[in-house]
Amino acid sequence: MSEPVNKVKQTQQQVDDVTNTMHIAVGKMLDNQQKVSELTDKSENMKQGAQQFKKKTNEIKRLMWCRNIKLTLIIIAVVVLLLVVIIVPIVLKFT
């Protein structure tokens, strides 16, 4: 009669072990879900930051391009003006 009682106790111990293991596994799963949720939020924030960064860099790129064109036009105008100032008196002198 002792043997069936031992088997019941042994089976109950196995059930308790499995239950404990499942509790631990469920706890870890919930922790992992929380971490995934946090990572998803951080990822979304980074995505928004990257989009804002890209928008700003495009604005700055456009602004710098305009400034570069203006500077180039000013340099060309100064060179043309200098050439006119130098060449016109020479041409007028020889005509």
What would you say about this model in short?
This protein has 95 residues and is mainly alpha-helical. 98% of the residues lie in helices and 0% in strands. The chain has one helix and no strands.
Characterization of the model:
- Involved in the targeting and/or fusion of transport vesicles to their target membrane.
- Residues 92-95 are vesicular.
- Its main location: membrane.
- The chain crosses the membrane at residues 71-91.
- Residues 1-70 are cytoplasmic.
- The chain is mainly α and 95 residues long.
- 98% of the residues lie in helices and 0% in strands.
- The protein has one helix and no strands.
- It has one helix at 2-94.
- The longest helix is centred in the middle third of the chain and has 93 residues, at 2-94.
- The mean pLDDT is 94.
Structural class by SSE content: mainly alpha
Shape: rod-shaped
Count all strands and give the number: 0
So how many helices? 1
| N-end to C-end Cα span | 137 Å
Spell the H/E element sequence: H
Alpha-carbon Rg, integer: 40 Å
Poorly predicted residue ranges: none
Profile the largest sheet.
none
Helix content: over 70%
Report the portion of residues in β strands: under 5%
- Overall mean pLDDT stands at 94
Core attributes:
mainly alpha; 95 residues; 0% strand
